[in-house]
Amino acid sequence: MKHLVSSPNxxxxxxxxxxxxxxxxxxxxxxxxxxxxxxxxxxxxxxxxEDVWAKATKAVDDLYELRDTYFPPNPDDKVSRLHRESDxxxxxxxxxxxxxxxxxxxxxxxxxxxxxxxDVVPDYKKEAEDHLSKAVKLNPSLADAWLCLGNSIWKKGDxxxxxxxxxxxxxxxxxxxxxxxxxxxxxxxxxxxxxxAEIVEESIKHAKEAITLDVKDGNSWYILxxxxxxxxxxxxxxxxxxxxxxxxxxxxxxxDERMKSNPDLYFNCATVNKYLENYxxxxxxxxxxxxxxxxxxxxxxxxxxxxxxxxxxNMLKGHVRAKRLASLAASLGAIDCKQPIxxxxxxxxxxxxxxxxxx
Length: 359
What we know:
InterPro entries: TPR-like_helical_dom_sf, TPR_rpt. This protein has 359 residues and is mostly helical. Helix content is 66%, strand content 0%.
């Protein structure tokens, strides 16, 4: 039987089992209506304290796992689901007794987790930024708190401040997540800049640095693929070697089982194959992306290519007269991707676009 969390504001969605388990098993140290108690009489006070901190941290991890892997047909359903599950995570976090979060380090961790929970939704939330700002003041060594603060600030459009946060996070030590997020931000900062190509090269450099820290990490390869594809566009969309570099990175990303649920990986890889005229691979990629995230316009891309291939097939059969051939050539200009497609590709790579959730 699936667990449901009732709310008058949102439709019913199954709650994350792992989050519910964490919430229920913490009832012994936190009186929350509806929570299921467990026996903790054999645990010491220190063990109970460590247990509830660990469960709160895991609840946040589960929340972000949901964000990165749940793609319903209606994107609004995902936002509603995240709101519901973040409410559960906040209740779990509040299970930590006030006296156990008085010290600066403890308070810093509490503010960090609370801010990160609130920031899980796509839109900017000032409350999230406020909690994360408190966290880095109380404990400046929390690298992930700086990373989350940078992401929160990015959402409100303050790119220089976001970049400063990522740089400070990176100063705490090498970290592939921070390097990937910095790479994404640089692609956004490149948009409209006079030195676009130079900024995108920095993006590529940081993605490669992330890979050197963990060569098997699919997300790092995915970020490199996006940066290479962006480089293709900002340098005039003529250098196919950049497309090949991007395709190689995407294929390495696909080797990581954790990336199998990322629809944007398949969409972006299909886009590269389309430009390389690998139509069969492109069609397969768009179909895979559509099956994983119905909200993507992958079906439209598939139809465009089917129409293109049908026209080419008819042309090769020799049934097209010269006048008809000229008309066909003109119509193909809008279909065969001779120029960048701002709403689907160029802006989505220079901006956050198809790298929606890289945390």
